[in-house]
Amino acid sequence: MRTTLLVATALSVLAVSGAHAQQRFRLGPTYSAISLEDLSGTTHTFSSFGGTAALITGDDGETGLSIARYHDLSTDGRARRLTLFGLDSYYYPVGARGVISPFAAATLGLARITEAKPGCLLLCGDTVSTTSQLALAFGLGVRLNAGNAAVATLAGRFLQVPGSDVQALEAVASASIAFGGVRTGEFLEGTLGPSASVFIPVSGPLRGRGPFAGVRFRRDTKKSGTVGLQIDFAPLEVTSGSCAPGCQPNAVLFAPGYETSVRPLWGRLYAEAGVLLAGIYTQGPDRGMAQGLHGGLGADFYGGRLMWNVNGRLLWLQRHSGENVFGVQVGASVSPRIGRPAAH
Length: 344
Prior knowledge:
Layout: H1 2-14, E1 25-37, E2 43-58, E3 61-70, E4 80-91, E5 100-116, E6 128-146, E7 150-161, E8 166-179, E9 187-203, E10 206-208, E11 212-221, E12 226-238, E13 250-262, E14 267-280, E15 288-303, E16 306-318, E17 324-336
Antiparallel strand pairs: 1-2, 1-8, 2-3, 3-4, 4-5, 5-6, 6-7, 7-8, 9-11, 9-17, 10-12, 11-12, 12-13, 13-14, 14-15, 15-16, 16-17
Protein backbone atom coordinates (compact mmCIF):
# COMPACT_ATOMS: atom_id res chain seq x y z
CA MET A 1 0.00 0.00 0.00
CA ARG A 2 2.86 2.41 0.82
CA THR A 3 4.46 1.86 -2.59
CA THR A 4 1.12 2.39 -4.35
CA LEU A 5 0.62 5.68 -2.49
CA LEU A 6 4.10 6.88 -3.47
CA VAL A 7 3.54 5.98 -7.14
CA ALA A 8 0.21 7.81 -7.08
CA THR A 9 2.01 10.84 -5.59
CA ALA A 10 4.66 10.65 -8.32
CA LEU A 11 1.97 10.56 -11.00
CA SER A 12 0.30 13.64 -9.48
CA VAL A 13 3.63 15.54 -9.40
CA LEU A 14 4.29 14.83 -13.08
CA ALA A 15 0.70 15.66 -14.07
CA VAL A 16 0.57 18.92 -12.09
CA SER A 17 -1.13 20.85 -14.91
CA GLY A 18 -3.45 18.06 -15.99
CA ALA A 19 -6.62 19.97 -15.18
CA HIS A 20 -6.22 22.01 -18.34
CA ALA A 21 -7.68 19.64 -20.94
CA GLN A 22 -6.43 19.83 -24.53
CA GLN A 23 -7.63 18.43 -27.83
CA ARG A 24 -4.56 16.46 -28.96
CA PHE A 25 -5.40 12.73 -28.88
CA ARG A 26 -3.61 9.62 -30.16
CA LEU A 27 -4.68 6.01 -30.55
CA GLY A 28 -2.75 2.98 -31.79
CA PRO A 29 -1.12 -0.43 -31.19
CA THR A 30 1.87 -1.17 -28.94
CA TYR A 31 4.60 -3.80 -28.90
CA SER A 32 7.00 -4.54 -26.05
CA ALA A 33 9.96 -6.77 -25.22
CA ILE A 34 10.49 -7.67 -21.56
CA SER A 35 13.52 -9.28 -19.89
CA LEU A 36 13.00 -11.53 -16.85
CA GLU A 37 15.72 -13.20 -14.77
CA ASP A 38 15.23 -16.73 -13.40
CA LEU A 39 16.61 -17.95 -10.07
CA SER A 40 20.03 -18.60 -11.58
CA GLY A 41 20.28 -15.05 -12.94
CA THR A 42 19.78 -16.09 -16.59
CA THR A 43 17.83 -13.53 -18.64
CA HIS A 44 14.78 -14.56 -20.71
CA THR A 45 13.13 -12.21 -23.24
CA PHE A 46 9.40 -12.19 -24.06
CA SER A 47 7.11 -10.00 -26.16
CA SER A 48 3.64 -8.54 -25.82
CA PHE A 49 1.07 -6.81 -28.00
CA GLY A 50 -1.57 -4.29 -27.02
CA GLY A 51 -2.88 -0.80 -27.56
CA THR A 52 -2.83 2.69 -26.09
CA ALA A 53 -4.98 5.82 -26.12
CA ALA A 54 -3.60 9.09 -24.74
CA LEU A 55 -4.73 12.72 -24.43
CA ILE A 56 -2.46 15.76 -24.12
CA THR A 57 -3.43 17.30 -20.76
CA GLY A 58 -1.16 20.34 -21.00
CA ASP A 59 1.90 21.55 -22.88
CA ASP A 60 3.96 19.54 -20.42
CA GLY A 61 2.30 16.14 -20.38
CA GLU A 62 -0.10 13.46 -21.47
CA THR A 63 -2.44 11.02 -19.72
CA GLY A 64 -3.31 7.68 -21.28
CA LEU A 65 -4.88 4.26 -20.94
CA SER A 66 -3.13 1.14 -22.19
CA ILE A 67 -3.62 -2.61 -22.39
CA ALA A 68 -0.95 -5.24 -23.04
CA ARG A 69 -1.10 -9.04 -23.30
CA TYR A 70 1.94 -11.12 -22.37
CA HIS A 71 0.99 -14.61 -23.54
CA ASP A 72 4.06 -16.39 -22.14
CA LEU A 73 6.32 -15.19 -19.30
CA SER A 74 7.60 -18.59 -18.17
CA THR A 75 11.24 -18.73 -17.00
CA ASP A 76 11.02 -22.08 -15.17
CA GLY A 77 8.60 -24.26 -17.17
CA ARG A 78 5.54 -23.08 -15.22
CA ALA A 79 2.61 -21.43 -16.96
CA ARG A 80 2.69 -17.65 -16.53
CA ARG A 81 0.57 -15.18 -18.53
CA LEU A 82 -0.21 -11.53 -17.90
CA THR A 83 -2.78 -8.98 -19.04
CA LEU A 84 -1.94 -5.43 -17.96
CA PHE A 85 -4.38 -2.49 -17.85
CA GLY A 86 -2.50 0.76 -17.18
CA LEU A 87 -3.12 4.40 -16.29
CA ASP A 88 -0.15 6.17 -17.86
CA SER A 89 1.35 9.60 -17.21
CA TYR A 90 3.87 11.08 -19.70
CA TYR A 91 5.90 14.14 -18.61
CA TYR A 92 7.46 16.21 -21.43
CA PRO A 93 9.98 18.73 -19.99
CA VAL A 94 10.40 20.52 -23.34
CA GLY A 95 6.79 20.10 -24.47
CA ALA A 96 5.15 17.50 -26.71
CA ARG A 97 4.97 19.57 -29.92
CA GLY A 98 8.46 19.20 -31.38
CA VAL A 99 9.49 16.65 -33.99
CA ILE A 100 11.40 14.77 -31.27
CA SER A 101 10.20 15.12 -27.65
CA PRO A 102 11.81 13.20 -24.76
CA PHE A 103 9.57 12.23 -21.84
CA ALA A 104 9.44 10.47 -18.49
CA ALA A 105 6.68 7.92 -17.99
CA ALA A 106 4.98 6.43 -14.93
CA THR A 107 2.22 3.81 -14.84
CA LEU A 108 -0.16 2.56 -12.18
CA GLY A 109 -2.14 -0.42 -13.43
CA LEU A 110 -4.19 -3.54 -12.80
CA ALA A 111 -2.48 -6.82 -13.69
CA ARG A 112 -4.41 -10.04 -14.28
CA ILE A 113 -1.77 -12.73 -13.91
CA THR A 114 -2.31 -16.43 -14.59
CA GLU A 115 0.32 -18.60 -12.95
CA ALA A 116 0.88 -22.24 -12.01
CA LYS A 117 2.00 -23.27 -8.53
CA PRO A 118 5.75 -23.75 -7.97
CA GLY A 119 6.94 -27.12 -9.26
CA CYS A 120 4.06 -27.41 -11.71
CA LEU A 121 4.84 -27.48 -15.44
CA LEU A 122 2.77 -26.12 -18.32
CA LEU A 123 -0.01 -28.78 -18.32
CA CYS A 124 -1.04 -28.78 -14.66
CA GLY A 125 -4.78 -28.29 -15.14
CA ASP A 126 -6.52 -26.99 -12.03
CA THR A 127 -3.26 -25.89 -10.34
CA VAL A 128 -3.22 -22.82 -12.63
CA SER A 129 -4.94 -19.81 -11.04
CA THR A 130 -5.62 -16.19 -12.02
CA THR A 131 -5.22 -13.31 -9.59
CA SER A 132 -5.44 -9.50 -9.77
CA GLN A 133 -2.46 -7.41 -8.66
CA LEU A 134 -1.40 -3.79 -8.84
CA ALA A 135 1.28 -3.06 -11.44
CA LEU A 136 3.84 -0.27 -11.18
CA ALA A 137 6.20 1.06 -13.87
CA PHE A 138 8.43 4.05 -14.61
CA GLY A 139 11.05 4.98 -17.18
CA LEU A 140 12.24 7.21 -20.05
CA GLY A 141 11.14 7.57 -23.64
CA VAL A 142 11.18 9.57 -26.87
CA ARG A 143 8.17 10.76 -28.87
CA LEU A 144 8.36 11.31 -32.64
CA ASN A 145 5.70 13.55 -34.18
CA ALA A 146 5.36 12.68 -37.88
CA GLY A 147 3.46 15.72 -39.09
CA ASN A 148 0.03 16.37 -37.64
CA ALA A 149 -1.46 12.91 -38.15
CA ALA A 150 0.94 10.35 -36.64
CA VAL A 151 2.93 9.81 -33.44
CA ALA A 152 5.47 7.11 -32.57
CA THR A 153 6.99 6.49 -29.12
CA LEU A 154 9.81 4.33 -27.80
CA ALA A 155 10.37 3.93 -24.05
CA GLY A 156 12.39 1.84 -21.62
CA ARG A 157 10.98 1.21 -18.15
CA PHE A 158 11.10 -0.85 -14.98
CA LEU A 159 7.92 -2.92 -14.52
CA GLN A 160 6.80 -4.70 -11.36
CA VAL A 161 3.74 -6.78 -10.52
CA PRO A 162 3.96 -7.23 -6.71
CA GLY A 163 3.09 -10.70 -5.52
CA SER A 164 4.48 -12.31 -8.69
CA ASP A 165 7.86 -13.00 -10.29
CA VAL A 166 7.49 -10.06 -12.70
CA GLN A 167 10.14 -7.46 -11.84
CA ALA A 168 11.86 -6.57 -15.07
CA LEU A 169 13.16 -4.10 -17.61
CA GLU A 170 10.94 -3.54 -20.63
CA ALA A 171 11.17 -1.73 -23.98
CA VAL A 172 7.78 -0.44 -25.26
CA ALA A 173 7.09 0.91 -28.75
CA SER A 174 3.86 2.39 -30.11
CA ALA A 175 2.58 3.84 -33.39
CA SER A 176 -0.51 6.03 -33.19
CA ILE A 177 -2.87 8.08 -35.29
CA ALA A 178 -3.14 11.62 -33.87
CA PHE A 179 -6.14 13.97 -33.85
CA GLY A 180 -6.61 17.60 -32.89
CA GLY A 181 -4.23 20.44 -31.98
CA VAL A 182 -2.23 21.58 -28.96
CA ARG A 183 -2.20 24.89 -27.13
CA THR A 184 0.32 26.11 -24.54
CA GLY A 185 -0.43 24.95 -21.01
CA GLU A 186 0.50 26.35 -17.60
CA PHE A 187 4.19 25.43 -17.88
CA LEU A 188 6.99 27.70 -19.02
CA GLU A 189 10.30 26.64 -20.54
CA GLY A 190 11.87 23.32 -19.61
CA THR A 191 15.13 21.49 -20.15
CA LEU A 192 16.85 18.16 -19.61
CA GLY A 193 20.33 16.72 -19.83
CA PRO A 194 22.67 13.95 -18.69
CA SER A 195 23.68 13.66 -15.04
CA ALA A 196 26.32 11.83 -13.01
CA SER A 197 26.45 11.35 -9.26
CA VAL A 198 28.01 9.38 -6.42
CA PHE A 199 26.25 7.75 -3.48
CA ILE A 200 27.80 8.31 -0.04
CA PRO A 201 26.32 5.81 2.47
CA VAL A 202 25.25 7.07 5.87
CA SER A 203 23.58 4.00 7.37
CA GLY A 204 22.18 0.70 6.13
CA PRO A 205 23.68 -2.19 4.12
CA LEU A 206 23.63 -0.66 0.61
CA ARG A 207 26.67 0.87 -1.11
CA GLY A 208 27.29 2.14 -4.61
CA ARG A 209 29.55 -0.05 -6.79
CA GLY A 210 30.31 2.93 -8.97
CA PRO A 211 28.93 6.31 -10.08
CA PHE A 212 25.23 6.66 -10.93
CA ALA A 213 24.38 7.80 -14.48
CA GLY A 214 21.05 9.28 -15.50
CA VAL A 215 18.95 12.15 -16.82
CA ARG A 216 17.79 15.26 -14.98
CA PHE A 217 14.55 17.04 -15.99
CA ARG A 218 13.40 20.53 -14.99
CA ARG A 219 10.37 22.59 -15.90
CA ASP A 220 9.09 25.90 -14.47
CA THR A 221 5.43 26.69 -13.90
CA LYS A 222 3.55 29.96 -13.74
CA LYS A 223 1.92 29.20 -10.39
CA SER A 224 3.55 26.19 -8.76
CA GLY A 225 7.31 26.75 -8.67
CA THR A 226 9.42 24.16 -10.48
CA VAL A 227 8.85 20.47 -11.18
CA GLY A 228 12.06 18.45 -11.17
CA LEU A 229 12.77 14.80 -11.92
CA GLN A 230 15.92 12.70 -11.94
CA ILE A 231 16.12 9.11 -13.22
CA ASP A 232 19.34 7.20 -12.50
CA PHE A 233 20.86 3.80 -13.19
CA ALA A 234 22.32 2.77 -9.84
CA PRO A 235 24.81 -0.12 -9.47
CA LEU A 236 24.56 -1.21 -5.82
CA GLU A 237 26.15 -3.69 -3.43
CA VAL A 238 24.75 -5.34 -0.29
CA THR A 239 27.35 -5.25 2.49
CA SER A 240 25.64 -7.36 5.18
CA GLY A 241 23.10 -10.17 5.51
CA SER A 242 22.84 -13.67 4.11
CA CYS A 243 23.90 -12.82 0.55
CA ALA A 244 26.77 -10.41 1.32
CA PRO A 245 29.25 -9.80 -0.21
CA GLY A 246 28.00 -11.51 -3.38
CA CYS A 247 24.77 -9.51 -3.90
CA GLN A 248 25.24 -6.71 -6.43
CA PRO A 249 21.77 -5.51 -7.46
CA ASN A 250 21.16 -2.96 -10.20
CA ALA A 251 18.42 -0.39 -9.62
CA VAL A 252 16.57 2.30 -11.55
CA LEU A 253 15.97 5.32 -9.29
CA PHE A 254 12.94 7.51 -10.03
CA ALA A 255 12.92 10.77 -8.04
CA PRO A 256 10.29 13.42 -8.90
CA GLY A 257 10.32 16.51 -6.71
CA TYR A 258 9.00 19.99 -6.10
CA GLU A 259 11.57 22.80 -6.14
CA THR A 260 11.32 26.26 -4.61
CA SER A 261 14.02 28.72 -5.60
CA VAL A 262 15.61 32.15 -5.63
CA ARG A 263 17.11 33.54 -8.84
CA PRO A 264 20.27 35.67 -8.75
CA LEU A 265 21.66 36.98 -12.03
CA TRP A 266 24.10 34.07 -12.45
CA GLY A 267 21.47 31.28 -12.16
CA ARG A 268 19.26 29.72 -9.52
CA LEU A 269 19.48 28.36 -5.96
CA TYR A 270 16.80 25.88 -4.93
CA ALA A 271 15.59 23.44 -2.32
CA GLU A 272 13.86 20.23 -3.43
CA ALA A 273 11.81 17.47 -1.79
CA GLY A 274 9.91 14.49 -3.20
CA VAL A 275 9.26 10.77 -3.24
CA LEU A 276 11.84 8.17 -4.25
CA LEU A 277 11.26 4.82 -5.97
CA ALA A 278 13.94 2.20 -6.67
CA GLY A 279 13.17 -0.57 -9.14
CA ILE A 280 15.56 -3.53 -8.69
CA TYR A 281 15.29 -6.09 -11.49
CA THR A 282 18.22 -8.42 -10.68
CA GLN A 283 17.90 -11.58 -8.56
CA GLY A 284 18.37 -11.31 -4.81
CA PRO A 285 16.53 -10.33 -1.63
CA ASP A 286 16.01 -6.73 -2.83
CA ARG A 287 14.42 -7.59 -6.19
CA GLY A 288 11.28 -5.52 -6.74
CA MET A 289 10.35 -2.01 -5.64
CA ALA A 290 11.81 -0.11 -2.70
CA GLN A 291 10.36 3.24 -1.70
CA GLY A 292 11.35 6.31 0.29
CA LEU A 293 11.89 10.06 0.17
CA HIS A 294 14.56 12.50 -0.96
CA GLY A 295 15.37 16.14 -0.27
CA GLY A 296 18.25 18.55 -0.64
CA LEU A 297 19.76 21.67 -2.20
CA GLY A 298 21.07 22.55 -5.65
CA ALA A 299 22.25 25.35 -7.90
CA ASP A 300 22.01 26.10 -11.62
CA PHE A 301 24.80 28.16 -13.20
CA TYR A 302 24.30 29.90 -16.56
CA GLY A 303 27.18 29.63 -19.02
CA GLY A 304 26.48 30.72 -22.57
CA ARG A 305 23.87 28.40 -24.08
CA LEU A 306 24.37 25.79 -21.37
CA MET A 307 23.19 25.49 -17.80
CA TRP A 308 25.36 23.60 -15.29
CA ASN A 309 23.83 22.05 -12.20
CA VAL A 310 25.33 20.81 -8.95
CA ASN A 311 23.20 19.27 -6.21
CA GLY A 312 23.27 17.24 -3.04
CA ARG A 313 20.37 15.43 -1.41
CA LEU A 314 19.61 13.00 1.37
CA LEU A 315 18.04 9.70 0.26
CA TRP A 316 15.96 7.37 2.40
CA LEU A 317 14.94 3.93 1.12
CA GLN A 318 13.18 1.08 2.89
CA ARG A 319 14.22 -2.43 1.79
CA HIS A 320 11.88 -5.45 1.60
CA SER A 321 13.33 -6.64 4.91
CA GLY A 322 12.18 -3.42 6.58
CA GLU A 323 15.74 -2.11 6.98
CA ASN A 324 16.16 1.61 6.39
CA VAL A 325 18.94 2.86 4.13
CA PHE A 326 20.18 6.46 4.32
CA GLY A 327 22.74 8.07 2.06
CA VAL A 328 23.78 11.32 0.42
CA GLN A 329 23.73 11.61 -3.38
CA VAL A 330 26.04 14.32 -4.76
CA GLY A 331 25.94 15.00 -8.48
CA ALA A 332 26.21 17.33 -11.44
CA SER A 333 24.46 17.70 -14.78
CA VAL A 334 24.45 19.87 -17.88
CA SER A 335 21.54 20.89 -20.10
CA PRO A 336 20.50 23.60 -22.56
CA ARG A 337 19.99 26.92 -20.83
CA ILE A 338 16.45 28.19 -20.29
CA GLY A 339 15.34 31.75 -19.69
CA ARG A 340 14.77 33.49 -16.40
CA PRO A 341 11.00 33.64 -15.84
CA ALA A 342 9.43 36.07 -13.43
CA ALA A 343 9.89 35.34 -9.72
CA HIS A 344 7.29 33.01 -8.15
